[in-house]
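Histidine kinase/HSP90-like ATPase domain-containing protein structure dump, as promised
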Amino acid sequence: MATMWLLRILLPAFLTTLPLVSFAGAPRSFARYSHQHWTEGGGAPAPVGAMAQGPDGFLWLATGEGLFRFDGTRFERIEVEGSGQKNDLPGALLVTKSGDVWISLETSHRFAVYRQGALRVLDGPPASSRIVEMVEGAHGEIWALTANFSAEALRFRDGQWKTFNAADGLPSDSSSNMLVAADGAVWIACSDGIARLAPGAERFAIYRKAPYGVLSQDREGRIWLSESHGSYPITGLGGRGTPVSLRTPYRTGGALSPGTPLFDREGNLWIGTRYGGVQRLSTPAATLESGGGGAAESFTSRGGLSSDVTNQLLEDREGNIWVSTDRGLDKFRSATLNADPELELPAIFGDKLLDASDGSVYIGEAHTIFRVRPGGTPEPILRNVIEPQSMCEAPDGAIWIGFATRIVVWANGGIRQMIERPDQAASHKVIYDCAFDAAGDFWMSASGGGLRRYRDGQWETILAPGDRSDFYPTTMIAAPSGGVIVQTGDRLVWIDSAGRRSSTYLDFGGSELAVLTLYAAGEDVYAAGAFGLSRIRGAQVETIRADPVSPGSRINGIVQTPEGDAWLAYPRSLVRLRSGDIEHAFRDGTFPTPTLTLGFSEGLRSRPHSHSQRSMVRGGDGRLWIATETGTLWMDPSHIVRNTLPPGIAIKSITADSRAHRDPKTLKLGADTANIEIDFSVLSFADPGRVRAKYMLEGFDRDWVDPGTRRQAFYTNLPPGKYRFRVIGANNDGIWNRSGAILDFEIPPTFFQSTWFPVLCAVLVLFLFWVTYQVRVTQITRHIHGRLDERAKERERIARELHDTLLQGVQGLMLRFQAVAERTTHDEKWREQFEAALATADDVVIEARNRVRDLRGVEGTNDLCAIIEHLAADVPFDPPIPVRIVVEGRPQLLHPSVAEEIKRIVREALFNIAHHAQASFAEVAIGFESRHLAIRVRDDGIGIPGDVLVLGHKDGHFGMLGMRERAEKIGANIMISSSPGAGADITLTMPAKLAFAKRRPPRRSWLSHFMCRSSIDE
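structure tokens r here:
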């Protein structure tokens, strides 16, 4: 009761304020655009002056805070290099076809160019005054218009500036703007006329006298002049010939901004004004033949423009219209969802929508009921009403409209009947909803008033089925089987036509997940709300649960198209679901992915109203009508505004250990780089919040990374190497740019990460191994040499002892025996025997002396060649055979002990050849190499028997066994091989350090060397 009393007091005051927040201030033509602005409060610089879009997609802005580039979400400031230019703000702005960004500097009157990530001031003299506009000529030359009182233009071509003024044909008064026509001609508008520089000419010509205005060019190449009396063409097609004669100019009056007017891709003329916002003239070129005279419509700060003081206009490559103002930046985009200016005062609890059986749509606003016929526009059928609360269609086509105190029946173009609401349903009891059942009875639910039915001119109260105390009916709809389906509290129930029987379809168990809207499609009934979406088909109920349950997932409206697709209204968007996806979703219970989402950028200016029983309906012409918090919108699902242009992708910077590199292409970073941040942009301005991005660092990432709304990539402690960073992106409609942007960079290795480091480590390890090996070899050599020296000394001692004792004693005895024999033996026979015995004793002494000599070694025979020569001559070959001695390398002296053992091994080998081989040829090859000594003895005899080779010796013979033992003593390796009939081959090898003496032998004469290689015949 208190609530309705307060409503009665506040409602009139509220209604008087609604026109201030509705779309009444927006003209008809601007109703089909979505509008968005950025101001200082949203992080935008201000004021914004000149604008241009680069080939990569960035929007460049010359502002009162400096030069900025904008990617749809972030404003990035670009500073001029050099400390002296920090406070020199940009004036005019131009982006060339090559991507260079030119600006003029307001204080110094110089020019700066942004190229390869840096904004640098050009060399050369400054302009005579500030620059108001810059354009690019047909052949890439740069034109600049100054703000002098006498018209002056500058041209930059081939690195040189040239000035054009009155001496070059320009008027002597001030200029307003300049453009380059499609044929390459340069046009300049001045206070007292229009000048034109023909292609290839070097002197301007006065084209015509004209009042002060600004020039523009339409899509067919006509040049237009907009001045205080209006806008009109001054040339024919292609910028030539006589223009079409108009009865009156198009009305675009007002103080015009000096910025160039803009013809968009649809042919609409946009004009910025100094104090009156932005003007739009709908396709003037299309109505030239009819004499023109149409009026432009304005969009001002009252409609949402950031400021009525505008500076410049720009159409980007996606068709968005940009307006720069003294307070920020505005964007207009053709919208899928449209507002109709007739629908200018929404109801306090949302407009009431009804789709009638004849295809008409009825809209109940705060003070007017409208009817929209298929293909038509809203027509008022009831005026001066107060807040309609519900609308239903009777079986006969009459429209029953519920108000606070009565039901109005509208039919055949007028009011047919007015029915007072029942006494219990006083005016403070707001009608929730109404419906007609299959029997033609009218049902109504009201706050605190329960459920009412109107039958045969009488009101009936329908009590709660089962006498439930929580029966609070709200949303309802006619049931296909008769009766009605009603939401009551936390349940959705069916009540038969008699109001006596009921059944529960949905029960939320006391939760707040109530049904917000009901929709009938044939024999099916859909219920939707925060819980998700349910379909009632006969007695079966199927539900798709919303996941997650949140305010953003609440469904406010539902409509199904004849094709079976479903449109759902959410608090922030409209989505489309394909019929096949819906059927699949009802089978598995999970919500399908929408195939299309419409939001703010498509014209959804406010939320679909949650207090409307049906916030969305479909008319007979296929258009959808949506009741939002700021009015009713409509859309044609067959004419969705699509963004088919892939987005631009740009890698803005790479920051390596706090050092930033802007606009990199290829880069070599520091060897000790640890932290890398890469900033990139997906450049689509249709709806920047819905663009998508993926990136991959080839050589590191295994798959594409989806960063969500983040536009940075971070990497830490990358190993050294060459990398390629790739970014791809999709616009708001899912159109992908898969070529994307690429950044190649290299992280060189530090010394410890370089390939040389492990090589050097390996070399060092090998060197250490080599040193260790050399030390070990030296130790072994010393050990072996020590043992050999000990043996040699022991042999010498034994030899001396034998010589000084045994041989001397034996020889003394022989002398005595000789003396005794000569004195005492007269018998010739005994004398001969005595002499024979003494001769034998002489032989024994000689043999003993030989053995002593062997024990001492051969004096001066450390020369291996000499040893071999001696052996070859000493061994008794019978019959004699040639022994060939071959020497390779530079001969070196042997260690004495080694020389003795080698001599005995070679002697044994030659003796075996002489006694067993039956050879006709023998050869001894000596190899003096830097690392080892090799001696090879071979013959062409009968060879060594196989069993002897296997055993290593012959029973009772120890020659071969002795050779191996002697080789082992000196650290040598001996290999004996033989083949039957092919002779024997004995190879002795030993390390050079063990074999050779420390000093090299004196250089042998060539004759000695030749003799060493000669054959010796025995």
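The radius of gyration is 56 Å.
lmk if u need the other ones
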